[in-house]
């Protein structure tokens, strides 16, 4: 309550106290003219007014939002009036006044009525102002000048939104009622606002109550539900906003329930994966954790998600000094960082000697390998660089992990590694193979070789206790270079959105989802498993583009053109999560599955990787492509045709698996 508002209600309260006492005398004696009555009344007022004002302040009535008085406020009025009456009784007793008990009771009741009504009246006026007939008869006379909104969802999230809006008066937003598809809630009053109908009544309710915007307050709703509601709102000519999804709220983002524009991630929203938080905390808490690619979109989110589990130290490894500096500063400012040693480490994973130094000095107990070249078209033009970063970089990390074994090693992979049509996908499949070989290698021989050579064929009798795992998932919304930021920039510039093919579909997940899966895989991994997420149904890129255009308040084809440019080098229309010889099975974590790949001929893979790295160092693109085909027989670039060799071992360096998948941890 502002200072001038406090003074106004202080004056109203004082006048209410005077009026209450006068009326109480009149009700008891039918007059206030007798000298004795007048004298007693003045004595009582001189005592009671300062005491009553102090009590009203003490119970907090001058620190409340008057426009939204509720039951707790009226209870405070009752408490204040009762305490003031008890003080008056004490005054009467010690002053030996012949005061009528009926006057005292009437004064108590009237004070509650007058002071309580003064608090309720502004809210009654606000509710009255929402009635269409009042707005027609007295336009603008009763306030309501802010933007008028409907809250879609009459549950706890909707109630919280109303409370937030009322506490943030500067937003200029006036909630006028709720919309909810639950028939049982129709007509209910929540926070003084009525449930006015279902989504089918949106247009009628919006016209009647002059609504301009709808706030979707369904934190547990699926992406399909949000998409349908947004479509209905647009059909009624209403702008749409939303609140964070349940996954964000459970993860503690944001601190307050914030109303924001609907984003594309809301339209793809899925029920959050129920993580085994105890198992994650058990292996992360107090440990030294190294994250490669910590400055990237996935690596940086991994670091943020790891902080609440209390690692002892978090090493932020990356080649780009600016991105590492930024994530270091971001993490330092978070309350969860208290007690966590945050250490920036500038290093290139292609530099094996540097990685050996980092592992020797820092002794990480957990490694998350997120560093990679991931841009498909760029890697088509630079296959040698893709091999040096994605294959040699992974190999260097595995060697460093063998010399200085961590407890766990988790690598991020991609669905593009499955029957790859791109250089990037093929290099990530080779990285998966290297990780699986390292996980399965025997005590007598090591397929990875000496760390200093560049050859993968030396031996090592030491068997590290490291538990290896890889995580394979689809496209990540909002990551650097992904399709969403590109589309948004094209819309902002008024350009046509460019899509390669109308039938192209992709699996999508959010950055927090991807990071949570990676962290959970660290708890599940036992021996080189590849973990997958049930990503739901794939999404057509064309549908995604149309949704983005509509979220910008525009119409596809009318305000923003969509053009088809043809598939780019390395792209395929449909992504897969399993190869032809892989099988998947459930883990103990809902929606997370484990794939078991074919058995690998370690010696053959070792020799082929040696040649591949040597060719990449020489800059021989043709030899690198041939080497990738030898290692991954399913690899066939789209520009070379669609025919694929069978995934078998006769013509390749791999050997078919003898069995299927098994649950992680067995």
Automatic annotation (TrEMBL):
Q: Where is the composition biased (Gly residues)?
A: 657-666
Q: Which SUPFAM superfamilies match?
A: NAD(P)-binding Rossmann-fold domains
Q: What InterPro entries does UniProt report for this protein, alphabetically?
A: NAD(P)-bd_dom_sf, Polysac_CapD-like, Polysaccharide_Synthase-Rel
- Which residue ranges run through the membrane? 7-29, 41-62, 74-96
Disordered, as annotated region:
637-666
Residue ranges under compositional bias (Basic and acidic residues)?
637-650
Q: Which residues form the Polysaccharide biosynthesis protein CapD-like domain?
A: 289-596
Q: For this UniProt entry, which residues form the secretion signal?
A: none
Q: Which domain of life is it from?
A: Bacteria
State the UniProt keywords alphabetically: Membrane, Transmembrane, Transmembrane helix
What family does the entry list? Belongs to the polysaccharide synthase family.
Name recorded for this polypeptide? UDP-N-acetylglucosamine 4,6-dehydratase
Q: What is the lineage of its organism?
A: Bacteria, Candidatus Ozemobacteria, Candidatus Ozemobacterales, Candidatus Ozemobacteraceae, Candidatus Ozemobacter
């Amino acid at each position: 309550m502002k200072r001038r508002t406090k003074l106004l209600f202080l004056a109203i309260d004082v006048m209410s106290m005077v009026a209450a006492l006068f009326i109480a005398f009149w009700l008891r004696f039918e007059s206030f003219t007798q000298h004795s009555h007048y004298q007693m009344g003045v004595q009582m007022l001189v005592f009671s007014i300062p005491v009553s004002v102090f009590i009203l302040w003490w119970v907090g009535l001058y620190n409340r939002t008057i426009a939204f008085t509720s039951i707790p406020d009226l209870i405070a009025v009752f408490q204040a009036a009762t305490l003031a009456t008890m003080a008056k009784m004490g005054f009467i007793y010690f002053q030996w006044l012949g005061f009528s008990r009926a006057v005292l009771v009437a004064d108590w009741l009237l004070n509650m009525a007058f002071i309580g009504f003064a608090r309720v009246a502004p809210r009654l006026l606000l509710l009255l102002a929402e009635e269409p007939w009042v707005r027609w008869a007295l336009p603008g006379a009763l306030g309501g000048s802010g933007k008028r909104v409907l809250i879609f969802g009459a549950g706890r999230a909707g109630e919280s939104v109303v409370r937030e809006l009322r506490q943030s008066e500067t937003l200029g937003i006036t909630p006028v009622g709720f919309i909810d598809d639950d028939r049982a809630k129709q007509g209910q009053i929540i926070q003084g606002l009525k449930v006015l109908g279902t989504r089918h009544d949106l247009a009628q309710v919006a016209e009647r109550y002059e609504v301009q915007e709808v706030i979707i307050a369904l934190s547990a709703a699926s992406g399909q539900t949000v998409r349908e509601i947004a479509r209905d709102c647009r059909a009624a000519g209403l702008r749409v906003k939303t609140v964070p999804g349940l996954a964000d709220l459970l993860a503690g983002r944001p601190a307050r329930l914030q109303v924001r524009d609907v984003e594309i991630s809301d339209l793809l929203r899925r029920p959050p994966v129920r993580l085994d938080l105890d198992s994650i905390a058990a292996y992360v808490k107090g440990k030294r954790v190294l994250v490669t690619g910590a400055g990237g979109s996935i690596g940086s989110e991994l670091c943020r998600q790891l902080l609440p589990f209390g690692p002892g130290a978090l090493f932020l490894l990356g080649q780009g000094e600016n991105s590492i500096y930024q994530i270091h500063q971001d993490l330092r400012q978070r309350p969860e960082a208290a007690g966590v040693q945050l250490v920036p480490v500038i290093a290139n994973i292609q530099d094996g000697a540097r990685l050996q130094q980092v592992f020797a000095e820092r002794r990480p107990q957990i490694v998350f390998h997120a560093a990679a070249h991931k841009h498909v078209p760029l890697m088509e033009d630079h296959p040698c660089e893709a091999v040096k970063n994605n294959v040699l970089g992974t190999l260097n990390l595995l060697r460093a992990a063998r010399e200085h074994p961590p407890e766990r090693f988790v690598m991020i992979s991609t669905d593009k590694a499955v029957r790859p049509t791109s250089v990037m996908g093929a290099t990530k499949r080779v990285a998966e193979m290297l990780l699986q070989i390292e996980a399965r290698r025997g005590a007598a021989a090591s397929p990875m070789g000496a760390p200093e050579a560049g050859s993968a064929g030396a031996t090592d009798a030491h068997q590290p206790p490291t538990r290896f795992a890889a995580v394979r998932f689809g496209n990540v919304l909002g990551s650097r270079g992904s399709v969403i930021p590109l589309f948004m920039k094209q819309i902002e510039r008024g350009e046509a959105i460019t899509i390669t093919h109308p039938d192209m579909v992709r699996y999508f997940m959010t950055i927090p989802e991807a990071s949570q899966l990676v962290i959970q895989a660290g708890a599940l991994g036992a021996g080189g498993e590849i973990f997958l997420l049930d990503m739901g149904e794939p999404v057509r890129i064309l549908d995604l583009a149309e949704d983005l255009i509509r979220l910008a308040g525009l119409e596809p084809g009318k305000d923003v053109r969509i053009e088809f440019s043809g598939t780019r080098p390395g792209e395929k229309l449909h992504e897969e999560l399993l190869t032809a010889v892989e099988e998947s099975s459930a883990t103990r974590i809902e929606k997370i599955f484990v794939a078991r790949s074919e058995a690998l001929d370690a010696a053959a893979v070792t020799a082929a990787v040696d040649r591949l790295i040597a060719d990449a160092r020489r800059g021989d693109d043709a030899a690198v492509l041939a080497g990738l085909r030898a290692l991954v027989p399913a690899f066939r670039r789209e520009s070379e045709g669609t025919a694929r060799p069978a995934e078998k071992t006769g013509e390749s360096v791999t050997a078919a698996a003898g069995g299927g998948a098994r649950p992680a941890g067995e």
